[in-house]
Amino acid sequence: MAKKKDSEKHEDGQRGGKYNKDDADANELENFVDDITDEELLGDVLQKRPKVSDGVDTVIIVDGVPQVNPERFDKLKVVITKIFAQFGKILNDYYPKSENGHTKGYIFIEYEKHESALEAVTQANNYKLDKQHTFLINLFSDYKKYNDIPEKWEAPTLQPFPERPNLQYFLSEPDAFDQYYVYNVNSHIEVWLNSNPQPTKLVEREKWTESLIMWSPLGTYLATLHKQGVVLWGGPNFTNVLKLSHRNVQFVDFSPCEQYLVAYAPLDNGEQKLTIFDIRTGAEKRSFISDAPMAGNVLRWSKDDKYFARIGHNTLSVYETPSFGLLDKKSITVNGIRDFSWSPRDNVLAYWVAEDKDVPARVVLLEIPSRKEIRANNLFNVADCKIHWQKAGDYLCVKVDRYAKIKREKGDVKYSGMYFNFEIFHMREKNIPVDSVEIKEPIHAFAWEPIGSKFAIIHGEPSNNSVSFYNVKSGQAPVLLKKLDKHFCSHLFWSPAGQYIVIAEIRDSGALEFVDTADFTTMCSTEHYKATDIEWDPTGRFVATGVSSWKTKGDTGYWIWSFQGRILNRFNTNTYCHMQWRPRPPTLLSAKQQKDTKKSLKKYTSQFETKDKMRMTKASKEVIDKRRKLIKEFEEYRSKRLEDWNKQKAERMAIRSHIDTDELDSDDKNVQVEKVEFLVKEEVTVID
């Protein structure tokens, strides 16, 4: 029988729970001190042990619930369940009742997870069920905390005021240079100043965002999106100004005056959650659940942030701020509503309603908050409509796609004999008259002049497009100013200052035509091959064109042009994805002050030109100094190499049988001279 090893004996002794006092390690075991805590040894097990709050922190108390009789109880329970089920799975609910069966006005709801209970408290607290009932919600675990409030009040500790950076610093740039960001692959972000003659890099950061990056509409903030929520950056060094928690956010939208931010995040059931935040305080104001596809602008804001609206099933819901409640406590019933848009100047909504059998389509102008229809226009044989407001809000254009025949097959609708109308609403005239422009050819693009009353359209067959310019005047029908035939183009890009326009073909040839609409002269015809993006700077002085690596391969990068079409800078890089100019807020000058400034511009032209020359001279001096430095470095390197070459001459001679081949004439025996003659010039002189 084989004997056990000592190690096996030791293990057997431990399994039996006995220690052998004769072992050599016995003395050490007697002096052993266990300094390992239970959390370190069994941390994963202890985390699962029951807590005092288990079963309590998933329960919420909802006060302000209607008190109903037994006949209406089932209906109340359906409404309550629909509201609170959106925050998570409900395990139990309890409705306390009086002796006669009436509910007491408060309920208990138990969720599966503590996070769901927290979200219900955050999102549904102060929720208005109707005019008489507003929910007040607390965690059940907070009941004891609120019940044990001390009678003697103690003043809270003063917190230091976190000083914010100057968020409008970019407006005080001495030379009025604009900023823009460049988004590269792997979320490598660069912020540049479009200085002259070369842009200056201000900030460069890796992994600055996890998905999207965008400027706020007035340029105050730079927003980045992350898994946990949204971060707003600002100030000269782009410091963290505000963090907004909103998990899995995919898109954000700012209100026009930057008072509020809307975050969009998808839910597991295919819907999306919309949350409105107050940018000044970071507080969450209201949230919605929408079944619309994951695209922004579900909520659309009025120009002054006082109202926002969204479309429901045959309803138009208008909300007011800062209460974030429905205007007049009810939605507007509009059967067949398809789309709407706010005026950029007034609190007026324009929406259109589709045809329904013998009922014509309608375009309606609705004044808010009075809900008064100030204009309506009936339209027949309508397939689709697109609403285009002029930037000043003086005119509204509704592009109407109309048909001659309609055919319905197995639920599909097919139109034939298509033609197009532009319905122009004169918003500043009495009774808002409407003019119509009919185009028989397909329409590819439409764009209002931002400052002015002109609009441009691209129409015709794809291989033979035309660009037409119309002007709208008060009391007159639109007048055709100019038609440019045989233009291979797909998009129109007006200068923010008006007058100048870029007619472009995107993603194929990249053809660009810079046109001055004052006399419709073509200032420049050029191209940026396979350009995917074109964007004017906010002042209308520069245009940026880009080829994004998101959309194409090869020759990616962005170029910057003058408004006349002169190329200024080329930045070709394989990592380029997107760029965006930093917006500017509207000017505070009146129309008269702006007009006077333009008149006196000639006084300052010489100063501007002198400054530009000095800047160019400085740039030239820097280039010359850099070249001189490179030449000096090259000459030093060359002299060292020549010195090494001379030291190695003995070795070269030994290798080459002591024949010196360093110079062409050093070995005249192995050189053959050949003369070649050729005719350089022939002159013929004729003498009479």
Automatic annotation (TrEMBL):
Residues 58-142 form the RRM domain. GO terms for molecular function: RNA binding; translation initiation factor activity; translation initiation factor binding. Residues 1-24 have a biased composition (Basic and acidic residues). It is found in: Cytoplasm. Component of the eukaryotic translation initiation factor 3 (eIF-3) complex. The eIF-3 complex interacts with pix. Interacts with mxt. RNA-binding component of the eukaryotic translation initiation factor 3 (eIF-3) complex, which is involved in protein synthesis of a specialized repertoire of mRNAs and, together with other initiation factors, stimulates binding of mRNA and methionyl-tRNAi to the 40S ribosome. The eIF-3 complex specifically targets and initiates translation of a subset of mRNAs involved in cell proliferation. Component of the eukaryotic translation initiation factor 3 (eIF-3) complex, which is involved in protein synthesis and, together with other initiation factors, stimulates binding of mRNA and methionyl-tRNAi to the 40S ribosome. This is Eukaryotic translation initiation factor 3 subunit B. It comes from Macrosiphum euphorbiae (potato aphid). The lineage of its organism: Eukaryota, Metazoa, Ecdysozoa, Arthropoda, Hexapoda.
